[in-house]
């Protein structure tokens, strides 16, 4: 945490640029040498004061704030009042143990989420030693020079040195909902916070333009730090699923208490049993039937899922996304960097005089230029000193550009946008130095690239003449140009001919950019009108961005899982279709353009949304309409985005997915999930993990409830029949505790089933406990009930004492549950195989643990005193093992019958469209 450095804060907004630089002993090229490290040690990291974590004792007490636990506490107090001191003490003890287990599990879950918060820490673009670098925002120090652009979160308080159409959204600081225009001119010292236009404040979002600023305050000394406002991070551990389980717990507790009271009353009134005994029987029924360990197990299951996704580069910001992922039926994905590698390489340049091919792949500035004839590159390399048109084209590509090429630790890297980086690399292959070119031709003004205008423009002086340089989407520049320039000679622009060239480059899967220029005099501040009239086209450049190999496999997985991948790109339709075919998309007959989307009504868009997998020349506002159209057809959508304007679509999607590398802070703020590697395959991996988490939670619930049901039914039937209880309240509580702590946790670690990505998406409206699970719970409860009563009666029939019979019944219940745990690894698939029986270490580890616990419970003298148990003979254990094996085999037979009848264990919905696999067979 950074401590405030000044008792009276400096009015940076009122100081000029040079005075601000002098005060912080910095320059426009940034700090150099060891100075940043020294200042970091002096001022501390650029972090806000973190909210204090909830103290441990509050977390422990929160474990008792649960209707199921409160029922047990009341039962213990009532037992104490009736003189059952040992019973009351044991109930209190077991309740405390269960609370401690929940306490430690929740602690682990919170630690897992805290580590994920750390992964979401923002980055900052800085100038140090005159070179552009990307560093963690927490390493910024006063005196650093920071570069920010549209979509960024401002990382510290900045005194602006340069600002181009720069606007920030300051609602988090001033409450002002409309974006604020910024400039570099100093303002009055007494200006209100919202009027300090020469400042960009930490935590505000850049909504337009770009700027360069001097870091003047960091951490707690920033404006946001002074008012102690926290940045939003990952949400707390309360998801719709956990709320559903809490509500189910309350309803369950109500019915169990009602059944316990009625059962006790029946025993007292009908069978004339003593009131104290019947009260303890009612307590036993409540204790037996309440699954008090369930909420903690579900919580740890979700936390494990979040951790597993984070290890695979999918960072969950909002926990409900874990549940929603299993229901995704459509993934709307950006092309560049997500489906492709985002390793742009200029492959071809098309000038008025013909096409030129460029050798070399990647960012290394190595490769030669060759003229192309009849579609093939000529063997002889071009002499660039003689080709002035090509040199001028490359020069314009570097000047109208913000990217930089740097060699770091023996590897060439691009700082900035990879598309712009490809032009810098192409120029370096021709021997043109970016640093020298930009030093010789200062930039006087610029219009930053925005998705709405689809171009970038810069103003320079080239060869003594002021030139406006423009780079952008080729179809947009063709609209803005009327002439074409070849070796300094201008001629009429043949639009049709250039469209054919764009189509030719696009059909090879190349992303196409156009470059243009115009002479401009007596202009010092550019407007859109300057850039959109009297432009002269220089040529086209085709950039190769090959599909990711893993994305091709991920698309196959999607189609097999009933999930439609849909590409949304700003690229030309032909380029997009070529890449979609390489990736294996289902519908690649045609692409719909952004203009066509604009011309469609909502109803028309809903009509075609299921038939088109490629949307080209699409803008962020089109993404929102596409999501709405798919949702109107019942689809559950994931939507990727990286720009500030993608926010509405990310928020509207069922799961918004932001890019961690190329994504802006604004996009990450709007998303439920952030991809640390910007990779489409990571989304598919997260869906697989989401399906697994939900599967394991269903398995855990299906496993735990029969244990409670079997015990509760045994006590209820004994009271209703007027016979001896086969399990005492204390014994029931012991069973609940050890089963939840050992066996119940095992299924949370279960690996995904092999067919998890060949199922259709899950219906998000489906109940967690559907008819299939209810049937399984009742069926196994009855099996365990028969086992408990059978063991209890068999021992009594053979002359055993009640204590011995109850000991046998409890062990039968626990071992039967252990056998059923193996069944529960697969809800419908058979476990009668080596993998089914022995494929899970957690399952067998938990079985070994519970066997050790039961042996201690049965034979240790102090356990016998507390729980009323008695040592069993080998014959008893033989019958218990035989009974457990019988339960296991009967459940396997039931699975086989259900499979034969075509029953599914996975609730799926007939929603939003057809199975994408149909497209492959049609």
Descriptive notes:
There is one protein chain. Strands 10, 11, 12, 13, 16, 17, 18, 19, 20, 21 and 22 form an 11-stranded mixed β-sheet that branches. An 8-stranded mixed β-sheet has the order 8-28-27-26-9-23-25-24, with helices on both faces. The chain is of the alpha+beta class. The two termini are 61 Å apart. The radius of gyration is 34 Å and the shape is elongated. The longest helix is centred in the C-terminal third of the chain and has 42 residues, at 680-721. Helix content is 48%, strand content 17%. It is built from 33 helices and 28 strands. A hairpin with a 2-residue loop joins strand 12 and strand 13.
Descriptive keywords:
922 residues, alpha+beta, eleven-stranded mixed sheet, eight-stranded mixed sheet, 48% helix, disordered N terminus
Shape field = elongated
- Give the helix proportion (percent range): 40-55%
How many strands in all? 28
The computed structural class is: alpha+beta
What separation lies between the terminal Cα atoms? 61 Å
Low-confidence stretches: 1-7, 228-237, 913-922
Portion of residues in beta strands equals 15-25%
Radius of gyration equals 34 Å
Total helix count?
33
Mean pLDDT: 86
Brief write-up:
By secondary structure, the protein is α+β, with helices and mostly antiparallel strands. It has 33 helices and 28 strands.
SSE layout and pairings?
Elements: H1 17-23, H2 35-43, H3 56-62, H4 67-81, H5 85-119, E1 123-128, E2 131-136, E3 145-149, E4 157-169, H6 171-174, E5 180-181, E6 199-200, E7 205-217, H7 223-226, H8 240-270, H9 275-289, H10 294-311, E8 314-316, H11 320-325, E9 330-334, E10 345-351, E11 354-358, E12 369-373, E13 376-377, H12 388-399, E14 404-408, E15 411-415, H13 418-429, H14 434-440, E16 443-447, E17 455-462, E18 465-472, H15 474-480, E19 481-486, E20 489-492, H16 495-507, E21 510-519, H17 528-531, E22 535-544, H18 549-560, E23 564-568, H19 573-583, E24 592-593, H20 594-599, H21 602-608, E25 614-616, H22 620-632, E26 637-641, H23 647-652, E27 655-659, H24 665-670, E28 673-675, H25 680-721, H26 729-746, H27 771-797, H28 802-824, H29 834-838, H30 841-859, H31 861-867, H32 874-900, H33 917-921
Parallel strand pairs: 9-23, 9-26, 19-22, 23-25, 24-25, 26-27, 27-28
Antiparallel strand pairs: 1-2, 1-3, 3-7, 4-5, 4-6, 4-7, 8-28, 10-11, 10-22, 11-12, 12-13, 14-15, 16-17, 17-18, 18-21, 19-20, 21-22
């Amino acid at each position: 945490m950074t401590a405030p450095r000044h008792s009276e804060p400096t009015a940076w907004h009122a100081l000029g640029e040079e005075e601000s630089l002098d005060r912080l002993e910095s320059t426009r090229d940034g700090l150099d040498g060891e100075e940043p490290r020294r200042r970091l040690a002096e001022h501390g990291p650029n972090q806000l004061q973190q909210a204090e974590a909830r103290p441990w004792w509050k977390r422990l007490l929160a474990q008792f704030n649960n209707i199921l636990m409160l029922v047990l506490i009341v039962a213990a107090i009532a037992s104490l009042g009736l003189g059952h001191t040992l019973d009351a003490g044991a109930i209190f003890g077991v309740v405390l143990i269960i609370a401690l287990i929940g306490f430690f599990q929740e602690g682990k879950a919170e630690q897992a989420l805290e580590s994920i918060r750390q992964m979401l820490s923002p980055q900052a673009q800085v100038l140090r030693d005159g070179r552009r670098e990307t560093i963690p925002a927490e390493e910024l120090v006063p005196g650093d020079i920071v570069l920010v652009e549209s979509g960024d979160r401002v990382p510290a308080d900045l005194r602006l040195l340069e600002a181009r159409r720069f606007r920030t959204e300051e609602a988090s600081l001033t409450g002002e909902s409309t974006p604020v225009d910024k400039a570099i001119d100093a303002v009055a010292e007494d200006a209100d916070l919202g009027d300090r236009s020469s400042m960009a404040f930490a935590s505000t979002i850049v909504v337009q333009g770009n700027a360069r600023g001097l870091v003047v305050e960091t951490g707690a000394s920033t404006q946001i730090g002074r008012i102690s406002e926290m940045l939003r991070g990952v949400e707390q551990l309360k998801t719709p699923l956990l709320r559903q389980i809490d509500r189910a717990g309350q309803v369950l507790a109500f019915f169990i208490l009602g059944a316990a009271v009625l059962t006790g009353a029946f025993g007292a009134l009908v069978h004339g049993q003593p009131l104290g005994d019947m009260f303890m029987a009612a307590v036993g029924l409540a204790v037996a039937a309440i699954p008090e360990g369930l909420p903690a197990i579900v919580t740890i299951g979700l936390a494990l899922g979040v951790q597993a996704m984070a290890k695979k580069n999918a960072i969950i910001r909002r926990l409900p996304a874990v549940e929603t992922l299993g229901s995704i039926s459509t993934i709307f994905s950006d092309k560049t960097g997500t489906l492709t590698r985002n390793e742009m390489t200029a492959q071809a340049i098309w000038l008025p005089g013909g096409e030129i091919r460029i050798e070399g792949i990647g960012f290394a500035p190595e490769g030669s230029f060759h003229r192309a004839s009849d579609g093939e590159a000529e063997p002889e390399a071009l002499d660039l000193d003689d080709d002035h048109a090509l040199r001028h084209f490359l020069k314009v590509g570097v000047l109208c550009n913000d990217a930089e090429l740097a060699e770091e630790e023996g590897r060439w890297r691009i700082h900035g946008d990879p598309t712009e980086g490809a032009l810098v690399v192409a120029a370096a292959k021709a021997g043109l130095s970016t640093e020298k070119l930009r030093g010789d031709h200062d930039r006087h003004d610029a219009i930053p690239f925005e998705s709405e205008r689809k171009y970038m423009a810069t103003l320079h002086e080239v060869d003594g003449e002021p030139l406006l340089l423009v780079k952008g989407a080729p179809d947009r520049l063709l609209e803005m140009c009327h002439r074409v320039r070849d070796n300094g000679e201008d001629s009429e622009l043949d639009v049709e001919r250039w469209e054919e060239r764009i189509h030719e480059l696009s059909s090879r899967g190349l992303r196409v950019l156009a470059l243009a220029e115009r002479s401009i005099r007596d202009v010092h501040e550019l407007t859109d009108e300057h850039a959109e009239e009297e432009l002269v086209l220089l040529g086209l450049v085709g950039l190769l961005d090959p599909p990711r190999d893993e994305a091709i496999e991920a698309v196959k997985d999607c189609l097999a899982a009933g999930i439609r991948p849909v590409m949304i790109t700003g690229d030309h339709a032909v380029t997009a279709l070529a890449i979609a075919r390489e990736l294996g998309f289902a519908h690649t007959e045609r692409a719909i353009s952004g203009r066509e989307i604009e011309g469609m009504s909502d109803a028309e868009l809903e009509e075609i949304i299921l038939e088109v997998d490629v949307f080209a020349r699409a803008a962020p506002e089109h993404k929102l309409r596409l999501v709405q159209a798919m949702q109107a057809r019942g689809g559950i959508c994931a939507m990727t985005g990286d720009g500030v304007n993608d926010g509405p679509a990310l928020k509207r999607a069922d799961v918004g997915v932001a890019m961690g590398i190329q994504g802006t802070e604004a996009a990450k703020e709007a998303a439920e999930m952030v991809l640390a590697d910007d990779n489409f395959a990571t989304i598919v991996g997260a869906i697989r993990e989401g399906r697994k988490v939900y599967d394991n939670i269903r398995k855990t619930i299906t496993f735990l409830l029969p244990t409670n049901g079997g015990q509760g039914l045994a006590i209820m039937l004994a009271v209703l029949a007027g016979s001896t209880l086969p399990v005492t309240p204390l014994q029931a509580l012991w069973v609940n505790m050890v089963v939840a702590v050992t066996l119940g946790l095992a299924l949370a670690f279960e690996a995904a089933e092999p067919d998890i990505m060949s199922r259709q998406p899950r219906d998000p409206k489906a109940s967690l406990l559907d008819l299939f699970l209810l049937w399984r719970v009742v069926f196994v409860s009855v099996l365990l009930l028969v086992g408990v009563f059978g063991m209890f009666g068999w021992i009594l029939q053979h002359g055993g004492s009640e204590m011995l019979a109850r000991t046998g019944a409890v062990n039968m219940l626990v071992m039967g549950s252990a056998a059923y745990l193996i069944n529960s690894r697969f809800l419908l698939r058979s476990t009668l195989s080596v993998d089914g029986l022995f494929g899970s270490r957690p399952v067998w580890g938990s079985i070994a643990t519970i066997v050790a616990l039961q042996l201690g419970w049965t034979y240790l003298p102090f356990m016998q005193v507390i729980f009323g148990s008695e040592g069993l003979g080998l014959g008893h254990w033989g019958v218990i093992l035989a009974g457990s094996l019988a339960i296991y085999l009967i459940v396997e037979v039931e699975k086989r019958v259900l499979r034969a009848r075509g029953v599914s264990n996975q609730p799926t919905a007939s929603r939003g469209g057809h199975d994408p696999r149909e497209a492959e067979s049609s």
